[in-house]
Amino acid sequence: MPSDDDLRRLIRFSTDDGLIWLAGQRMLLLHSASLSALRREMLNTVGAGHARRMLMRGGYASGERDALLARQIRPDASLFDMFAVGPQLHGLEGAVRAMPEVFEVDEQAGRLRCVVRWDHSWEAEAHMREWGPQKDPACWMLLGYASGYASAFFRRRAIFKELQCAASGHAYCRIEGRFVHEWPDGEMLARDYAPESMLVRLDELQSQVEALRTRLQPIDRQGPLLGQSRAFEKAVGLLQKAAPTQVTVLLTGETGVGKERFASALHAMSPRADKPFVAVNCAALPSELIESELFGAEKGAFTGATATRIGRFERANGGTLMLDELGELPLAAQAKLLRVLQTGELERLGGARPIKVDVRVIAATNVDLEKAVEAGGFRRDLLYRLNVYPIHIPALRERVVDIELLAMHMLQKFSALHGRSIAGFTDRALAALRGHRWPGNVRELENLVERGLILTPAGELIDVDALFPQWSEGSQSGVDEQGFLTRQQAALPARQTAGIFDAMQSQGLSLEALEDSLLQEAVRRASGNLAAAARALGMTRPQLSYRLSRIRERDQDLRRDPENHE
Ligand SMILES: [Zn+2]
Questions:
Q1: What does the pLDDT look like over 200-237, one tens digit per residue?
Q2: What's the 177 CA to ligand 1 centre distance in angstroms?
Q3: Alpha carbon 405 to chain centroid, angstroms
Q4: pLDDT tens readout for residues 23-60
Q5: Is this structure's pTM higher than 0.90?
Q6: In this structure, is the dihedral angle defined by the CA atoms of residues 552, 553, 555 and 559, taken in order, positive or negative?
Q7: CA trace torsion 295, 299, 300, 303 (10° rounding)
Q8: Which of 22, 244, 467, 559 could serve as 452's disulfide partner, Cβ 3.0–4.6 Å?
Q9: Cα 99 to middle of ligand 1, angstroms
Q10: 356 conformational bin, left if phi > 0, alpha if psi -120 to 50, beta if neither
Q11: Backbone phi and psi for residue 28, each to the nearest 5 degrees, phi listed first
């Protein structure tokens, strides 16, 4: 078997947030007694047949995940060494010591024969303790792992059988795996891994409900309004109530929360759905053009008006006009807007006759218009006219529970757009998405997901460094060969390392002297508080005081005997 050092290095204990990682997968260090208790309860409540299949499927999922790592971690190794990642991880995870005895594979011909000896199976142990010796093998979860691992590894359905088991009186367990078509009873064996029929039915009903819900939800060109958080559902509820009426809606919320999506959804749900929806971003138009853009201009109305121009209000006639970033609208244009809202009539620039328009206005802003009124930048009467039905769209950080749902939806959208198939996100990436501050809200999430999709090889999971380029593992730790916790130092970027190295060279500093100055600098910055300085350096207080005392001793030696010191 190859060395498993490469696998040990993938285990990270993230002490700051209490997470354990195996590469990108979140892991649990749990007592085998707790899993045994769960196993016992399953057997008692649903019976051995169902419990066996449930445990097999649980193990299968875990084997599949470990297989994603295998080809990634040992890309240049022999097929056997690559495959050995599974048995080795199974051992590191504490499930069983797995020693492959036979490994014959011909992927092209679709032939596999893999015999593995299992010692110290936790499951056989647990089963024996609870139920005594059995006639049939009992390492169900482990067997599921082996099948899931081999199936994902070879990307072809493989099934393991347990030939002998420590739970039925043998000294150790032994399993044999083949591709499903190689077993005479392969199809039957594979059924163990298919979801239970009742669950299938539930799944079907679930997807029917989803389909109906999607059909009821407004779908615009940018996608549906997705979210289950209370804050978001409240906003959508208000929107749905406003839709069938003519009320002027004011959408508020930070940049990037999806105000245009809300506006076009409102339009799509309204009786005006088959009429135009026109959106204007007031901040994007130069102030000298904004009036002609909104209200139109007759030929010759101003320099450059070489032809009659139809404004956005007229374009939206019969439909809906969204005025985004309304706070940016100049005061003169505000006066004209107010008149249109009050009379339903507008005049083109340089035009002599009023034109009747029937337009529903949706205003949107990311600034506090009340404050803008106080500062003299916005008309109070216009604010009153617009603020009849305000809807606040929550920021993304206020709806953390929606992040995974949104990210998966965006992933599907971008997968189709870029023609790439990505399996999803690692648990670590999802945790990082949930923990992010999201100053740019949904739009920022969309950008990160698209970036992650592009940086991730097809068929793999998007990990955190593909989403956040500045991601650092500085606060994480690992486990050494003896299984002890070690702190891992995050490497400095090469550019900074080069700068420090140059400084050392030019000043003739030794590594030791550099270390001394760093220690002293930390103490100075912590105003002499050793505990704080130690924390900043990632060491304990006793470690720091020991090193400081070593510096003092060296200084004294130097003073006493300057000739002898190098
Ligand atoms: Zn067994």
A1: 556 666 656 655 654 454 443 345 688 889 999 999 99
A2: 14
A3: 10
A4: 888 999 999 999 999 999 988 887 888 889 999 999 99
A5: no
A6: positive
A7: 70
A8: 467
A9: 14
A10: beta
A11: -125, 140
